[in-house]
Amino acid sequence: MTQDRPRRSALYLPASNAKAIAKARTLPCDVVILDLEDAVAPEMKAEARAAAVAAVREGGFGQREVAIRANGIDTEWGAADLAAIAGSGADAVLVPKVSSPADIDRYQAALADAPASMQLWAMIETCAAMARLDAIAARAADTRLSLWIMGTNDLAKEMRARLTPERTPFLPFLSMAVAAARAHGVAVLDGVCNEFRDLAVFRAEAEQGLLFGFDGKSLIHPDQLAPTNEVFSPSAEELAWAQAVIAAFALPENAGKGAIRVEGKMAELLHLDQARRLIAVAERIGGNG
Ligand code: COA
Ligand code: MG
């Protein structure tokens, strides 16, 4: 299942930057996003599109999932981007500023000729999307939609809110987006942190994303990879707890019980589910190195 792939770290890079593309093939990111949109100037759009498609065809990304971020369907580049990405062999097309279920349907239609395996990933970054999160996520049931990425820079711009390290104005939206995504089996990644020199500030934001339930974080710089992978990998302590819960429920005296005591804390069958999931996540990460 695509849902089960590790997506701790998703690194954006401008597809117009050949050096960054070459570097991405060697970096410890779970996902590479070749950007044609915000990171590429208008006069470079055609060149970036060709470079992204060529990079995917050339391969060399190993276990990493590769997505290409298109310009919006209503921009002058959107249609050409979507047609090129559909035929590129990328794992996913990431589309910007999705604001309604109808937007998902338009992208789905534009990708009619793409291979069945190509996923549709959506940027959640407009004010309009915030009131329609559940309806947008629900389109995953019968479209290619499988993952969301929060676009906190665009959301801040539209709201005219300030993007501080605490992210206070955005916290309700982050929670609502995670809940809506989970309700419909959509994976969900946190937005980028523009601070790439101060890794203490960055790390605190990554930890906030984990706390909120995100599967991983979108990133802009290689220096952000190591802290992100660490934050979004289950810790030794969490794994030990998970093993203890699984072992305790397997004891004969606990057979048929719904709630038991493990190391002085209550564990219910829902915690057994969480423990199994955590161990499965760790195993998949092990497979990704
Ligand atoms: N992916 C891959 N490699 C990257 C990278 C990225 N996102 N960002 C920087 N690098 C590489 C540089 O090419 C450089 O390589 P080198 O050591 O071989 O010369 C190295 O990492 C160090 O780069 P650095 O000098 O620290 O950064 P910079 O000042 O050149 O660039 C940014 C800073 C923010 C412009 C750049 O990181 C970037 O373009 N990030 C992605 C922006 C993006 O895609 N935005 C859209 C989504 S929000
Ligand atoms: Mg944007």
Describe the structure.
With 289 residues, this protein is an alpha/beta fold. It is 44% helix and 17% strand. It has helices at residues 18-24, 45-58, 78-86, 101-110, 127-130, 133-138, 152-159, 171-183, 199-212, 225-231, 236-250, 269-288, and strands at residues 9-14, 31-35, 65-69, 92-95, 119-124, 145-150, 187-190, 216-219, 259-262, 265-268. The protein has an 8-stranded parallel β-barrel, surrounded by 7 helices. α1 (18-24) links the parallel β1 (9-14) and β2 (31-35). α11 (236-250) crosses α12 (269-288). The chain is globular, with a radius of gyration of 20 Å. The two termini are 19 Å apart. The mean pLDDT is 96. The protein binds coenzyme A and magnesium ion. Magnesium ion binds next to loops. Magnesium ion binds at residues 38, 96, 125, 151, 154.
